[in-house]
């Protein structure tokens, strides 16, 4: 039963829509009616409020990190399920009719909490691809693909399986982005939408 508790708590933590909360608190309006309508940091950046976008990024990472660390402390051995629960909560929050973010920052948090080398690989790929291309989606997709590979390299099969499942979620939610990447029409970070 511990895995159910860990997954449920992680889902609830993951479902806190920090981007939506912060943009409302700072007077930027309803984030769901801006840019892509997504509640993540990339869309918050489209409000022109870089500090709010940075705070959203850190808080979305932090909730994933916290979910896994709490599970590790309270129910050892449930970390992988907590990681999945946190990402599912961010992407499909019950409070927003299951329409949330795309999971990139929250996945960074869970990867870091599962094992810091996995988190380091995720961050390096994410920032490296983003820096080279200025395409947020490309960085996030590459990082999501890199995380299970890093887990496999560490010999952690359970974490690798969980991170594959998370990567499938991230890729599925980026379907439109992938189409635009293939067509060469995906907007770059800082470009108007």
Could you explain how this protein is built, in words?
The protein has 193 residues and is mostly helical. It has one domain (2-183). It contains 10 helices and no strands. α1 packs antiparallel against α4, α7 packs antiparallel against α8 (136-153) and α8 packs antiparallel against α9 (157-173). The longest helix is centred in the first third of the chain and has 25 residues, at 50-74. The model has no long low-confidence stretch (mean pLDDT 93).
**Biggest sheet character:** none
- Helix fraction? over 70%
Helix and strand pattern: HHHHHHHHHH
Low-confidence stretches: none
Strand content: under 5%
Q: Count of helices?
A: 10
As for the number of domains, it is 1
Number of strands: 0
Radius of gyration: 16 Å
| Shape by Cα distribution | globular
Distance between the termini: 46 Å
Question: What is the mean predicted local confidence, pLDDT?
Answer: 93
Task: Specify the structural class.
Answer: mainly alpha
Write the layout of secondary structure elements.
Layout lengths: L1 H13 L3 H8 L15 H5 L4 H25 L4 H13 L12 H11 L1 H18 L2 H18 L3 H17 L1 H9 L10
Helix pairs in contact: 1-4, 1-5, 2-4, 4-5, 4-6, 5-6, 5-9, 6-7, 6-8, 6-9, 7-8, 8-9
List keywords for this structure.
single chain, 193 residues, mainly alpha, 10 helices, 71% helix, globular
